Amino acid sequence: MKKKYILSFAILLVLSLALAACGGSKQLTMLTGGTGGTYYPLGGEISNIISDQTDTTVTPSTSNASAENIEALAEGEADIAFTQTDVMSNAADGINAFEGKAIDNVLAIGSLYPETIQIVTTKDSGITSVEDLKGKAVSVGAPGSGTYVNAEQILAAHGLDIETDIKAQKLDFDESTGGIQDGNIDAAFITAGTPTGSVEGLSATNEITIVPIAQDKIDELVKQFPYYAADTIPKGTYGLESDVTTVAVLAMLAVTDSLSEDDVYEITKAIYENTSKITHAKGKLISLDTALNGIGIDLHPGAEKYYKEKGLLD
Fold first, then answer.
1. Matching InterPro entries, A to Z (predicted)?
2. I need a surface site. Which of 43, 78, 186, 205 has the fewest CB within 10 A?
3. pTM of this prediction?
């Protein structure tokens, strides 16, 4: 009987210590994107950095990215999320996918790296310009993604309507490249840091082409939508024979305003002071020097405190 009592006490003690250990760490969820894009692998690494450097444990989760992520933050279904700066700006202004439902309880941590708009097709498709997409089956991004808005704006700049001039397919990155490979679609808009995993996978089995955007259309897009910037996909990426001109937006991290100033300060500090630990190729582009680029919404007070300490804000 005595031995049984001692054993029971030992088990309870171990459980108590385990619970105490868990209780010392806050549990947060980070929404990333689809597994074929950049958000998912990069989000995993950033989550690990935050978990290692603070008393907050962050668990990454897949999603349809951008617009869906912002809505989840606003509804309290997640704590931190990746999104595009343009989509975040639309959410704050209550336009495009957020028409009539402006979001005011999501704040910024900081921007990360350029996200390139890639119009992917195969060399055999014969598609060499945006105008050539007319009448074709084209993936315009998953429902709720920033890619859809980018596709709509770029097509419009070339005189094409997303609903009537193309056969729009709302697919995620993996579905898009799979559809091209299987011959079910002709091309796909993919907004992600290059090189993008799903596009690399397609280029391993097919000779691909990235459709360029002409300089006059780039200038028009940047003038109309200041969150765009001219970008170039370098020769050699995906086996490309020459550089491809296009546009990009910025990836950023957003956060619910319900998180405390102290927690977000520590999270922001952990990210921007440990970028050297990020092995993903986009880690080289994440820098404190560019953390405020393209941010069109208010910063979370915790992030603002960190940037003021670093002399980036008055």
1. TRAP_TAXI (IPR011852)
2. 205
3. 0.74
